[in-house]
Design brief:
Layout: E1 6-11, H1 25-42, E2 51-63, E3 70-80, E4 84-93, E5 98-108, H2 119-129, E6 148-152, H3 171-178, E7 186-192, E8 202-207, E9 210-215, E10 218-226
């Protein structure tokens, strides 16, 4: 049996880039979400047979997409747990852009509670996982007491059909606060702790290269940039 890999091409549109032509991180997150869904469809599942939410995303931007007009994406399962899977995806631009991504996805049942991966899933993706364990542990620290505070307004367009803010929308504040640091090679990590909803009063806290999404003082998500 050959380990499954799925490949797709994606044109880079004007709406995916910043004022300097750089492919934004929120656009990268959408690409990753879409190619994962396309892979599952190609493997034979109907769109409503699986529900997945992101627990953790790590983006290693080896070379930002600047003049690229197309991205080639290759994705595969790199690890599993009882109700989670680690998905790796490489993005290669037609003019040198390069991003390697790892996303930990939690598998949910119809009641939106974690549901164990079935034999059918393991039959398709187990070979590429090769027995590696997908960790759902959260590793990023909380904000320091002196972290700066700023309100952030959520929009109706941030919410998906699960009625929570979509994982890609979390990257917009990262772009807003760290845009100058995203023009070179970097690693960006974003962990999702609890969902954000449209009515939440979101406060961002920033210190150094860390950004925390808080509601009523509780951290809902955390992002860190590193070289």
């Amino acid at each position: 049996m050959t380990a499954r890999r799925f490949a797709a091409q994606r044109p880079i549109r004007l709406s995916d880039t910043d004022a300097h032509g750089r492919l934004r991180l929120d656009a990268v997150a959408r690409y990753l979400q879409d190619v994962a869904a396309d892979d599952v469809l190609d493997a034979g599942w109907a769109p409503d047979e699986h529900i997945w939410v992101v627990r953790r995303t790590v983006l290693d931007v080896a070379r930002p997409f600047l003049d690229d007009t197309e991205a080639e994406l290759t994705t595969w399962c790199a690890g599993t747990a009882a109700s989670a899977a680690l998905r790796c995806t490489s993005l290669a631009g037609d003019r040198g852009g390069r991003v390697d991504a790892e996303m930990t996805w939690i598998h949910l049942g119809p009641d939106l509670q974690p549901q164990r991966l079935g034999e059918r899933f393991l039959a398709v993706y187990g070979e590429s996982a090769a027995g590696r364990r997908a960790s759902t542990r959260l590793a990023l620290p909380g904000p320091p007491p002196d972290a700066a505070r700023v309100d952030w307004s959520l929009r109706a367009t941030d919410v998906d059909r699960l009625r929570h803010v979509n994982n890609a929308a979390y990257w917009a504040p990262v772009e807003e606060h760290f845009a100058a640091k995203l023009r070179g090679a970097h690693r960006a990590t974003l962990e999702y702790r609890r969902p954000l909803d449209l009515g939440d009063r979101l406060e961002l806290r920033q210190a150094g290269d860390g950004l925390w999404f808080t509601v009523g003082g509780a951290v809902r998500a955390a992002a860190i940039l590193s070289a």
